[in-house]
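Data deposition worksheet. Section B asks for the primary sequence of the deposited chain exactly as it was used as input, without tags or linkers unless they were present during the calculation. Section C holds the resulting structure in token form. Section D is free text for depositor observations; keep each observation to a single sentence. Incomplete worksheets are returned to the depositor.
Section A, Depositor: J.P.
Section B:
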Amino acid sequence: MSLTAALDSARASLMASGIQSSTISRNIAGASAAGYSRKIAVLDNLPNAGVYVAAIQRAASSGLYNNVLIATSSSAKQSAIFDGLQKIASATVDDPELDQSPTAQLNKLKQALQQYANAPDNTTLAQAAVTSAKDMAIALNQATQTVQSVREGADADMKTSVQNINQLLSQFQTVNTAIMKGTISGDDITDYLDQRDSIVSQLSQELGVTMSIRTNGDAALYADSGVVLFDKTARTVSFVPTNAYTAGTTGNAVYIDGVPVTGANSVMPLKSGKLAGLAGLRDNATVTYQSQLDEIARGLIETFKESDQSGAALPDVPGLFTYPGAPTIPASATVSVGLAGLISVAASVDPAQGGNPDLLRDGAISGNVAYQYNTAGNAGYSARLQQLIGGMDASQPFDATTQGKPSGSLIDFASSSTSWIENQRKAADSSVTYQKTLLDRSTAALSNVSGVNMDDEMSLMLQVERTYSASSKIISTVDEMLQSLLAAVGN
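Section C:
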């Protein structure tokens, strides 16, 4: 090898070592940054030209990255569902100190009626029974408010999620354009690739998403339902929020590029992500539980209704428990939407409203004497109270669509409702735990491939320093040899 060739080779090595050193420093600086992937200076050589840095590449694994996206979306969906169910269960079921669940209130009411039946002439026990009935109605009213509050919160969170998605898609378009331009011009685009992956990772929290890489680094995004999110341009994700919820309110669907992806009429529904979890919570679990509460309320009105005692064949009317639709009795075994939020104790029997609690014993709560059971006005009359207690234990049909017990006593149905919401919550909790574990393991596997290991980087830095030192020594030696040669020629 000539001295000139040796000098050129050493100079090329110095330049390559400088780029390698810069790349290592870049890795060390970005080691703790979220979404940063390790950068690698790829070396190559040309005959008589020495080594050079052919490209800067990322340490990456598309398979592991896709696993992280899937796990992120699944975890976000289950967390959204669990959080909502936890709020409902905490307010309506998990109350060991207050004991305000519908089942607990029904048992308290039954006990209060039994005590009153044992001493039907005791006004204090009559008032206690009415108070227990009021607590029962209030528990259903408050449970309805809780359920609808959770639905309203889910709807508001869906709005926020849609805003985040549109913002991220806009960012994705900007970065994707920079990647395409950099790929065509041969620039280092690894930081842009990190940014794009980070954006997609954030998107995966909101909805299930997959990314397809095409020519010149271009990428397309698809929701897990198959709807296009990005193809050359970002697609519009739209949603009209509903500010207030009642039991009969149906939330609006989310649309991607005009295609509904949530709701009953969705042709391509989202399968995972926070948005799918919120939509499922708002439209499914909460609606089912509300229907169960409504059936408990209907069962109460049915159980405590008053029948004509005059022989005139008058229709049954609400008794202790009433609602705005009185004097009509709600249809049997059919959900009366929102009834749990409207049920109340009749004013005529409530002392707080100037009513007479003894009407619970005597009948004619509706004000019509045709419905009076204690026609003799006997203070020791207990037959009506015993009838009411037996009614709470009697089997009756319930709407099968509520997923509660289709037939049985009112207390049995309330217990099945409590079990249902608890099972839903426990299943969601187990799924959250599993999905988070899967996400942690997927993230760790990806980090092992694309993350920065400080020990490895420092070891590589030492190797580069040795190479740099050797190349510098060669240049110094060649310089001395050339000086000696020039001196000899000069002499």
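Section D:
The chain has a mean pLDDT of 89.
Residues 123-185 form the longest helix (63 residues).
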